[in-house]
Amino acid sequence: xxxxxxxYYTLAFQIISNVGTAKSLVIxxxxxxxxxxxxxxxxxxxxxxxxxxxxxxxxxxxxxREASGEKLEFSLMLMHAEDQIxxxxxxxxxxxxxxxxxxxxx
Length: 106
Fold this sequence. Notes:
This is PTS lactose/cellobiose transporter subunit IIA. This protein is an all-alpha fold. The chain is built from three helices and no strands.
């Protein structure tokens, strides 16, 4: 079964939307920690994981389809989605460490 162009773009937009929400929550967590609100920061980090995982699942489904032999066309939209996944992963790691530093400094 071939991935239709509109389905392909829909998946890319869903990935971008989910990981974008995850990134926003991670940054909100950082701001909460900066104000000493560590419980709220942890809640936001946990909520962000849900959105990140959803985006990652969609991305993994595309990889599985291609690995099964389906030809997927190159797309700047998908490349952007992949870039967002990688940046959110990195930002989450850094913010988690920064929150720990804030926690230790108070």
